[in-house]
């Protein structure tokens, strides 16, 4: 069985780079003899989905639950299991939603599960993937061979391969009552603006920003320099910024031309997300902050004064 199923949880926020990244991974698996399909879990209520570079997939199906399921992992587990019955490998992006159903599908199918994959490669002997281990201190390479596996990809955005876009019809797949029922959840909406994945400039804030009210300074500065907003996990956990903006080991990996870290100490878990940045500019009031060990430009001082001065010049 060498079928690979790519799963996309599709909402109004889904970006072309997400289609492109999955299509690129599919193209590389196809060249190693896999047959790739795409399964779209659609929550937009549209009747069709345009899949960028969709021609790379032999089969595309798109379903919507027909009734509200929130982030109902139980529904997603059922839907993905049904769609992946003839697939040895399931690949999805390392989003919060996918991290919800991914391990459950793997456990139900007795498959290997690997999250935060930085690379996924296929060869004659099957699949190898790399992912951070030991809290992001090392990168492990896992030889999965031809084992069944569920892989969540959190590496860099990949360019869409040169395949035609495909229009896929969305069918309704009535959610059956599961044993686990969705009750309620409240997700902070994304901040909007430039998406983090694939951004050429990122302005990221950490706990040193000080409060949710002051977070608007980070957004204002990012807006002035046309950068995507990023955040440390500590800032996300304070509820200042949605988790879709988290950079690091358990967030997104970014590889911009310039990464500006503001009030971020430089913990290994954060650094695990910015290894691909070409230039790092750090603003921190502590001259011994670890972030300065990896930064190209170090600015010691209170970020509010520094950004105010910078914005006066812009
Ligand atoms: C399994 C695991 C996964 C994790 N994944 C992630 C992840 O994906 N991403 C992530 O970021 N973290 C992650 N973490 C958490 C990580 O270890 C750190 O706790 C976190 O990155 C710290 O965030 P911070 O730098 O914003 O806060 P702090 O470490 O508290 O740093 C705040 C910094 O702000 C500076 N500062 C304070 N006031 C000012 C001011 N006025 N002007 C300028 N500077 C100021 C301080 O000097 C300090 O250096 C993970 C942890 C674990 C255990």
UniProtKB/TrEMBL annotation:
Binds 1 FAD per dimer. Keywords: FAD, Flavoprotein. One of its GO terms (molecular function) is electron transfer activity. SUPFAM superfamilies: Adenine nucleotide alpha hydrolases-like (SSF52402), DHS-like NAD/FAD-binding domain (SSF52467). FAD binds at residues 232-233, 246-250, 263-270, 284. Residues 196-274 form the Electron transfer flavoprotein alpha subunit C-terminal domain. Its cofactor is FAD. It holds the Pfam family ETF_alpha. InterPro entries: DHS-like_NAD/FAD-binding_dom, ETF_a/FixB, ETF_asu_C, Rossmann-like_a/b/a_fold. GO terms for biological process: fatty acid beta-oxidation using acyl-CoA dehydrogenase. This is Electron transfer flavoprotein alpha subunit. It comes from Rhizobium mesoamericanum STM3625.
